[in-house]
Automatic annotation (TrEMBL):
Lineage: superkingdom: Bacteria
Bias (Pro residues) ranges: 28-38
Protein name: Cytochrome c domain-containing protein
Residue numbers spanned by region Disordered: 22-44, 93-126
Signal peptide: 1-24
Length: 126
């Protein structure tokens, strides 16, 4: 009987201790709130957040839907851009046959590597 009593006292003490350590945190501000995620390794490249703006800014003047200026296809949706990604990577990196064609400025190196990274990350839409 005495042992049982001691045991339940132990259990109650353990429960109380648990509770008090739990309730020590709420209310007190976290000293390091929201550590800023590192975009270079925790965020994958997606069509919506990275690729659409590159295409819209550099390609849509011809690759609209319907395409104009003799461009052969539209690049206005995720499905279209994803479908052409290999050709797009080839052409934006080509020095002899680049996209966009001259006299347009070529894509920046960072835009080119974003498109490559998009493919490496699995061609995510969002
Ligand atoms: C000034 C108009 C114009 C702009 C801007 C332009 N293109 Fe083009 N694009 C064309 C034309 C015309 C062709 C067809 C002739 C050729 O392949 O060179 C073409 C062809 C292509 C092809 C080859 C398609 C195939 O089936 O062989 C790809 C891929 C492409 N463009 C991607 C792009 C991308 C990506 C951009 C933006 C970074 C872009 N283009 C910007 C006019 C343009």
């Amino acid at each position: 009987m005495k042992l049982k009593h001691a045991l339940s006292l132990l259990v109650i003490t353990a429960l109380l201790f648990n509770c008090s350590s739990d309730s020590a945190n709420p209310g007190s501000p976290d000293p390091t709130p929201d550590p800023t995620p590192d975009p270079t390794n925790s965020t994958k490249v997606t069509y919506t957040s990275d690729i659409a703006s590159i295409i819209n800014g550099n390609c849509i003047s011809c690759h609209s839907d319907p395409p104009v200026n003799s461009a052969p296809m539209a690049l206005t949706t995720y499905a279209q851009v994803k479908n052409y990604v290999d050709l797009i990577i080839t052409r934006v990196n080509s020095s002899t046959n680049p996209m966009p064609p001259s006299p347009n400025d070529p894509l920046s190196d960072s835009d080119k590597s974003l498109i490559q990274q998009w493919k490496d990350d699995g061609l995510l839409e969002n």
